[in-house]
Give the backbone structure.
Amino acid sequence: MMKNATVVDVTDLVVQRGRVRAIDGVTFSTRPGEVTGLLGPSGCGKSTLMRALVGVQIVQSGTVEVLGLPAGDKRLRDRVGYVTQAPSVYDDLTVAENLRFFARVLGVPATEVDRCVEAVDLTSRCDHVVSRLSGGQRSRASLAVALLGSPELLVLDEPTVGLDPVLRRDLWAMFHRLADEGTAVLVSSHVMDEAERCDRLLLMREGRLLANDTPRTLLDQTSTEDVEDAFLTLVDQAGAAA
């Protein structure tokens, strides 16, 4: 895929959940080779937006295209990797057994298993039953599954929550290595200090995007020193304009 091509293209997306408008007219796009951070407080709509990107969320209006196809199209199955907040692996199987199973489902070579286990630093745990792993290790097992087949888009819903600082650092380094290889990486987080690790930021609050820009540009535009202060400035500006 060309560097300037669009991987995700979202236009005027609206998602209604009961009486709440979880996503309210969101528009943005992502490109290959970028780590895009989707940041905002819990409950602002990040997970709902990610579900829409992978085609498992009912939408009221707007469009969501991924790699030129409608989100959820079966042709995207082996081109998009998705990691949910809750580990999406089988507790009664080992790490290696989980990956071998999903490799067969996706139709990717079994040789992918070792590569993906090593990528998330679980080689020493590959023969351990998932139910006996720590929460962080189970999350990394889910990430290993998402890496099978070298997807062109990696959608990660708060993958670093609860992890120790060293592992968080190592995972972010891996996200950037994947981006350098051409993968578009979309990572959600409610931890603002992770924002500076991203190439581009989508700042979200109450279902709306407050900003879509690089960290440096956001700091310059808001005359602030860190992304948390930039976010608060944007919230204040949005409130004053309402």
The mean pLDDT is 91.
